[in-house]
Amino acid sequence: MINNLTARVVRIYSEDRPDGVDDIDLGLRHTFNPASQPAQLAPLPLVTTYQDDVPVEIVEYGHTDNLPTSRDGVFNIVPLEVALSQPRRRDDLLVPYREVRDSTGAVIGYRQLAQPA
């Protein structure tokens, strides 16, 4: 089972689906609807410093909200920054990969999912 823990619909298209086409159904293989509470980074602000009179926040990353623990047979589509923020690689985390674009260049889907190594 694959869950979509992003805030957006994730569409997976066939390999031969051309870019630059506005028909979102052409070559559509699968649609994953977004989670009601998506997984996201929850950075922890530590201290504010100043560089050339500009405030710079020191932030600790690696914290996430709404990311469930791993379960056998369950995969979760998450934003790339969530997958990369994990202190240990998780085999259950997938990210959208190889964008499909419409005639305006907007991303409408992906050709694959990827598992960050």
Describe this structure in words.
- The protein is built from one helix and ten strands.
- It has 117 residues and is mainly beta.
- A four-stranded mixed β-sheet has the order 1-8-9-10, with no helix packed on it. The chain has a two-stranded antiparallel ribbon with strand order 2-3.
List keywords for this structure.
two-stranded antiparallel sheet, 117 residues, 4-stranded mixed sheet, globular, single chain, mainly beta, 1 helix, 10 strands
Average pLDDT metric: 96
What is the topology, as strand order, of the major beta sheet?
A: 1-8-9-10
Q: What is the count of β-strands?
A: 10
State the end-to-end distance.
20 Å
Shape: globular
Counting helices, strands and paired strands, the structural category is mainly beta
Beta strand %: 35-45%
Helix content: under 10%
Provide the gyration radius in Å.
17 Å
Helices and strands, in N-to-C order? EEEEEEEEHEE
The low-confidence runs, each spanning 5 or more residues with pLDDT under 50, are: none
> How many helical elements?
1
Largest sheet: 4 strands, mixed
Task: Itemize the secondary structure elements and their pairings.
Layout lengths: L1 E3 L5 E4 L14 E5 L7 E2 L2 E8 L2 E7 L3 E2 L9 E3 L2 H6 L7 E9 L5 E8 L3
